[in-house]
Each structure stands twice: as C-alpha cells, then as structure tokens.
Design brief:
By secondary structure, the chain is an alpha/beta fold. It is built from nine helices and five strands, in the order βαβααααβαβααβα. It has a five-stranded parallel beta sheet with strand order 2-3-1-4-5, sandwiched between helices. Bound molecules: adenosine-5'-triphosphate (ATP) and the ligand Nc1ccn([C@@H]2O[C@H](COP(=O)(O)O)[C@@H](O)[C@H]2O)c(=O)n1. It catalyses: CMP + ATP = CDP + ADP; dCMP + ATP = dCDP + ADP.
Length: 208
C-alpha cells in the first residue's frame, strides 16, 4: 500500500507520515530532505540555488548529507524551495522517490507532489494543511530550540514565501490531488491529527 501525504510547510505532514508508517509497518520517506540536501549542497559550493546548472550539480550530493542537522534550518528550507522549482532538479530526484514508493509492501511518502506526480496511483492520499499562523507558530517553536535569534515574524514571512513558491511554480506545483482527503490540523493535537489520518486511510483502503 502506498500512502501519499502532501501539504505546505509546517502543516504537520511529516509527523503524520511517520505515525502512519509506524501504524502500518511501512517505510517512510521525507522527500523534502532530498530537496533540502540539494539546496544545502549548492550553497556550500557557493552556487546559486536559482541557477539551474548549479542546482542540477547539487543533485549529486553525498548521501551522508541527508543526516546533517543543517538541513532542518529555515535557510535550508528556503534554498530547497528555490532549487525545487527547476524542472531538471525534479527530474533528477524523481526516480529515487518513485522507486521508494514502488518497493514491495508499499511505503509512506510526504512532500508536495506525492499524490499528483510521484505516486498518482496511491490508494490513500492526504493533503495536510493548517492556517499560516498556526504553521508559523509550530515552526517557530521548532527553530527557536535550534537557532538563536529567530523571530516569529521572520518565520511567518518565510512560510508565506515558501507557500507562494511551492504553489506558484510551473513544475509540479503544490496542490491537493483531486482524490486526496483534506486534513486541516489547525485545531487538532498531534494525537488527534494522527487518529484522523488513520481513519481517512482506513476509509480509502478497507476493501483492498
Ligand atoms: N497537530 C499538531 N499540533 C501541534 N504541533 C504539531 C502538530 N503537527 C505537527 N506539529 C509540530 O509542528 C512542527 C512541524 O511539523 P512537521 O515537521 O510534521 O511539519 P511538515 O509539514 O512536515 O513540515 P515541513 O514540510 O516544513 O518539513 C513539528 O515541531 C511538529 O512536532
Ligand atoms: N516532494 C517535495 C518535497 C519538498 N519540496 C520542496 O522542498 C522544500 C522543503 O520541503 P520540506 O517538506 O522539508 O519543507 C519545500 O518547500 C518545497 O519547495 C518539493 O518541491 N517537493
């Protein structure tokens, strides 16, 4: 069984995807880490994330980079959202995401285009969202524990800018798949959101 979990920054999709993977005993891929690795690889090479050739070179990142805490910073998220707009970068990362989704037994993947591009055939698709203020508050709490001097206003601005880039780009824009279930976590605790997610997946897959 493939479960696709898409949604904007800090909506809670990674938390839900990990919980679904544990519940169903499936492997999980946070596809955002791939794009964050490309963005960090480009900036560490003094390249320009907005330059397609630099961004494509960044796709040949050392797999060990995926474990680097630097990928969790907001700067990495910004660089990722810039490199991810290049069709060549999306093409270069496509096969490894599809291979992960198609492995025997299935998988859970979270990102922006899982239900629309990577695995449109997935029997269960969630589009996880929350208000921009709630998402910014969640990300602020997360970053405040990691980075000195981060402000809520700068986090909100980054979230809104990333939303705009992710949904406004021509290549694989962030959008709810026609057959995806919407899950707004604005007023839900993590546990309540996870239980709702499981119910939605069960409703889609009960007869399979
Ligand atoms: N329902 C919730 N209530 C409160 N906090 C939440 C909820 N869901 C997730 N969080 C917290 O919000 C932060 C962001 O969650 P998560 O990483 O799952 O979001 P995401 O959509 O995967 O973000 P991104 O796409 O930017 O990586 C984490 O600190 C997480 O613990
Ligand atoms: N399937 C995906 C996943 C991510 N992106 C881009 O990467 C940025 C960072 O992703 P996070 O999930 O770690 O926030 C994100 O803002 C997107 O621009 C993507 O394009 N496709």
């Amino acid at each position: 069984m493939i479960i696709a979990v898409d949604g904007p920054a800090a909506s809670g999709k990674g938390t839900i995807a990990k919980a679904l993977a544990k519940h169903y005993g499936l492997p999980h891929l946070d596809t955002g880490l791939l794009y964050r690795a490309v963005g960090v690889s480009v900036t560490r090479a003094d390249g320009d994330p907005g330059d397609a050739a630099d961004a494509l070179r960044g796709c040949a990142f050392d797999p060990a980079l995926l474990d680097d805490p630097a990928l969790k910073t907001e700067a990495a998220g910004k660089a990722a959202s810039i490199v991810s707009a290049h069709p060549q970068v999306r093409e270069a990362l496509l096969e490894r995401q599809r291979d992960f989704a198609m492995q025997d037994g299935g998988a859970v993947l979270d990102g922006r285009d899982i239900g629309t591009v990577i695995a449109p055939q997935a029997p269960a698709k969630l589009f996880v969202t929350a208000s921009s203020e709630v998402r910014a508050q969640r990300r602020f709490r997360e970053l405040d524990a990691m980075e000195q001097g981060v402000s809520f206003d700068s986090v909100l601005a980054d979230i809104l800018a990333r939303d705009e880039r992710d949904s406004g780009r021509s290549a694989a824009p962030l959008r709810q798949a026609d057959d995806a279930d919407l899950l707004d976590t604005s007023d839900l605790s993590i546990d309540a959101a996870v239980q709702r997610a499981i119910s939605l997946v069960e409703a889609r897959t009960a007869d399979r």
